[in-house]
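tool_call: predict_structure(chain=1)
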Amino acid sequence: MVNGQVVLTAFMGLFLVAVVAWLTRLDSWRTYSPAGGGGYGDDSATVHSEKPSGVIRWLTTVDHKDIGILYGAYAVVAFAWGGLSVMVMRLELSYPGTTIISADTYNALLTSHGITMLFLFGTPIIAAFANYLLPLMIGADDMAFPRINAIAFWLLPPAALLVWAGLIFGPFVDGIAGAQTSWTMYPPLSADSTVAGTPAGDAGALNPGADLMMLGLHLSGISATMGAINFIATIFTERGEDVGWHNLDIFSWTMLTQSGLILFAFPLLGSALLMLLADRNLDTLFFDPAGGGPILWQHLFWFFGHPEVYILVLPPMGIISYVLPRFAGRKLFGFKFVVYSTLAIGVLSFGVWAHHMFASGMDPRLESAFMAVTLSIAIPSAVKVFNWITTLWNGSIRLNAPMLFCLGFVSNFIIGGVTGVFLGAVPVNQVLHETYYVIGHFHYIVMGAIGFAVFAGLYYWFPLYTGRMYQQRLAKWHFWLSMIGTNLTFFAMIFLGYGGMPRRYANYELTIGPQALFTDLHQFTTIGAIILMIGQIIFVYNFIISWLEGPKVRDGDPWNLDEHGMKTKEWEWFEQNKILPMTDGGEPEGEGGSARTDGGEPVEDVDGANGDDVDARPDDTR
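tool_result:
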């Protein structure tokens, strides 16, 4: 068996070598014009007539569309890891006592699940949409810094390996295990934890898995910051001549606001993580009671942590504001107010962090101030909800899969938002703090809102990035299973919180208290999670099969947007390039300049896997 510190040293050494090797490729950050990207580029650009094929293409690409697909594939893998880990946890909680896994394993899965879903799925899936679509929406050639864009992505796979290293190597290597700090990493436990998750003391050995997790988290933050700089530079400097601030689309506005939040929030997290690593390995006292104190970590972490919630939710709000009007047959009601509310959320998000600390002994006068700001930030969110509902009013609504997920988003977001308002009130927070009520509220936002917006976007733009159409009946099954599973899972958690069930407990075997009620509600939650998982399995099956074998889309307006004057720039690009960007990177052939798919082969009139005519638009009733 190998010593954990040796593994840590070797792992980081290999990573640094890989980074140096990648940096040697940076001969020019901006001189790139993507082949097959719609004929963009200027005289100073270095034009590549064709891309490499196979794996080399994906390892070396700097095309924003390719990088968007890489982000998406990475996020799906992270989503699967986080989902499977939480399913093991839910099965363990179906009955009191230790049934399937030990408390140590439960705590390690809990930590991995939280960090994976927030940092390895949430932020990258948003970057997937933004990388692929934002340049098309604003008429840009590519991202402002294509090579930095590629570096930002390639920092993420090693970040994931570092975060998961303790769980991966733990069964095979002595002295290392998955971090058991929870995703919030509160000291003093996180500053002094062993493989068993207990305080190390003077003679104990620290868990290298926790160090690796913190390094991976720091690396993901560097990636997000590089991406944010790129998005801001792209929106400011790469817009087409016909795109000004007055007609910038709502998704780009939310990405601009989100990127600004990242610039202010993630560097603080990185600094705090470095201080925590120093406490663990260099005997500093940043968060030791004899020095700065554990409360200092809470202030630093939550000053990042609550803007992080809006970093994750603002772009999905932009997706809903973008997609919902297309299937309501009306322009977004009160567009300017949606933009203003987005900017207001961005500003106010940095003034509410301490509502996570109402139970920490804070001065009541400070609690009152943070309560007031916390309640006030609900106002711009409510503005968006009223604008979405008003957009639907008297609209020509089509209940395709993207629209169903938009409606599900609005419904779940209302529940998640209202439960959050209660937590913002100090007296209520004192009762419900660190209970399952907090988990229910948070997951209504993360899964019920953000997840549903992601699915709405994936289905809406599916023809754009695949050139094919998905199986619509399976997509609706995905929606209904997700909607039922989400509400059954997380509404039961709300009641668990009202009953006083503490969060982060691997075992609720009680000598006093409502154990029978807790058992019933946990079983309802587990059943809901299983239903939710079945829905995601259907999604993955439909997604992969449709991408490979779905009916090819020959119409440049697959959603019939022209009927209501709702066709946007990305669909104009789609129509101009005939079905999808060229997979072989070659130049368009033929007098019409139309791109071809499948390695340049002409598109034929073929039937899809389900026998539908490829010219037919999605049927609203199927």
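agent: The mean pLDDT is 87. Proceeding to next step.
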